[in-house]
């Protein structure tokens, strides 16, 4: 009989909030294909944020499980603990959102500094950040950060005896050498066969698009957390007194 209550109880869906938060943190930390991979190796802020998300997500999963146990077996202390942790997590999420909003200019400057520094020291051998940036340039059909001129500051291009350009910038509509996905390529013509648009605006548009999705998920999680807090308080008030004999014994 108790097993049926476990599967049907409303609070059993709230650990999903923790799964969503932790999954997003893991994506930020482990992604190696999108622009996020370019930032994560050099940005301390992004690394700290990803670890915080993973920690908060894990804590939410544990608290969600305890909340379910407290609701199923009518244990007021577990319901109160569940409410308190949800409240703290919600406050932390709101605080993080406010900080990110007011620090967005500094974060944008940090992003620009990271990318420009990577372009200067690019060799094509780094499989994490450099290959991820190559992927960004190929898929977004852009070159450099502000413009292709950013690549002229590259150490290898400046000191090479031959004319080089980043292979991932190759504009396939222009005549030139064979196309490679990564590294530096040699060009024989006076003009480099590359895209003439920088990646800054395309990357910012990509981040805004994904931020919209992330914001929607965060709002949904916050609504679920509020519902969980309300439901836990209602259940806590409905329990007349604590009865620890209802805790399952294994």
From TrEMBL:
Q: How does it sit in the membrane?
A: Multi-pass membrane protein
**Could you say which protein family the record assigns here?**
Belongs to the tetraspanin (TM4SF) family.
Gene of origin?
Answer: LOC121840102
PANTHER family reported for this sequence = CD82 ANTIGEN, TETRASPANIN
Sequence intervals crossing the membrane: 12-30, 50-73, 80-102, 213-236
GO cellular component terms listed in the entry, alphabetical order? plasma membrane
Q: Where located?
A: Membrane
- Which protein is depicted? Tetraspanin
């Amino acid at each position: 009989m108790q097993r049926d209550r476990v599967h049907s109880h409303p609070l059993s869906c709230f650990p999903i909030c923790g799964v969503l938060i932790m999954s997003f943190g893991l994506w930020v930390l482990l992604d190696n294909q999108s622009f996020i991979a370019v930032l994560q190796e050099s940005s301390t802020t992004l690394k700290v944020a990803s670890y915080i998300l993973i920690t908060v997500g894990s804590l939410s999963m544990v608290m969600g499980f305890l909340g379910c146990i407290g609701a199923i077996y009518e244990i007021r202390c577990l319901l109160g603990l569940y409410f308190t942790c949800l409240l703290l997590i919600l406050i932390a999420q709101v605080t993080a959102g406010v900080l990110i909003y007011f620090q967005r200019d500094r974060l944008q400057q940090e992003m620009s500094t990271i990318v420009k520094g990577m372009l200067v020291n690019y060799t094509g051998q780094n499989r994490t950040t450099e290959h991820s940036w190559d992927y960004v340039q190929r898929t977004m059909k852009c070159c450099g950060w502000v413009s292709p001129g950013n690549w002229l500051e590259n150490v290898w291009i400046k000191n090479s005896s031959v004319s080089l350009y980043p292979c991932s910038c190759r504009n396939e509509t222009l005549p030139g050498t064979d196309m490679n996905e990564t590294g530096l390529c040699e060009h024989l013509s006076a003009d480099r066969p590359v895209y003439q648009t920088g990646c800054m605006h395309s990357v910012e548009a990509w981040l805004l698009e994904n931020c919209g999705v992330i914001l929607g998920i965060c709002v949904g999680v916050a609504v679920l957390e509020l519902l969980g807090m309300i439901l836990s308080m209602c259940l806590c008030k409905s329990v007349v007194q604590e009865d620890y004999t209802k805790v399952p014994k294994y």
